[in-house]
Design brief:
Shape: globular
Structural class: mainly alpha
Strand content: under 5%
Number of strands: 2
Distance between the termini: 40 Å
């Protein structure tokens, strides 16, 4: 018997659309905050990882690319990537990059630095992205935040695609910083219930 698809089975389209919209208008980068806030709220208030298991459009996208389009080699992910030291180390690195992004936004806010219209891929390579912001409507700090956040989302998607191709489709989910954070929250909530 074929299972009826639910609305959340199509969230991979939203994840793809986010990347496309940010290419043309960087202010869509702000929508990526939903991928931070919603999983944390579900873990904190619901005490579970249903976002990762059901609602994550990025995980679904990797599944579509890897399984349906057969772009994945479907090899097992190396054991060191599954290890707690790697996962928590990557979370620490990711959050450090997030704090640096917030600091860059702050420097634009206080006027000590100019707007940098670049997307940083893999936190290193500055790719000019000036075409994506052509309004003079928004405060410059909001634009800087959008560039920074879109950079993080694009970089993490590219990392996910690389591991999807080399290993199993949802290999990114093994070391995803949001997955590691929500898992930690669920464990802490579980300890408090005992």
């Amino acid at each position: 018997m074929k299972q009826t698809k639910k609305w959340y089975d199509y969230l991979w389209i939203a994840s793809s659309l986010y990347l496309v919209l940010g290419f043309f208008n960087i202010m869509f980068g702000w929508l990526g905050m939903l991928c931070f806030i919603i999983p944390l709220c579900i873990a904190i208030f619901g005490g579970n990882k249903s976002y990762c298991n059901r609602y994550c459009g990025r995980g679904q996208l990797f599944n579509v690319l890897g399984n349906k389009l057969k772009l994945s080699h479907k090899h097992d992910i190396p054991a060191f990537i599954k290890s707690p030291w790697f996962r928590y180390g990557f979370l620490t690195f990711f959050m450090t990059m997030f704090i640096i992004m917030l600091y860059n936004t702050y420097t634009v806010f206080i006027g000590s630095s100019d707007l940098r219209q670049v997307v940083k891929l893999f936190w290193t390579f500055k790719v000019p992205w000036k075409w994506a912001y052509h309004h003079e409507v928004f405060p410059l700090w909001t634009v800087q935040f959008a560039y920074g956040f879109y950079s993080m989302m694009l970089t993490s998607t590219l990392l996910g695609i690389i591991t999807m191709v080399l290993f199993k489709p949802r290999s990114w989910c093994v070391y995803c910083p949001m997955g590691t954070m929500t898992q930690s929250i669920c464990k802490i909530k579980g300890l408090h219930k005992q």
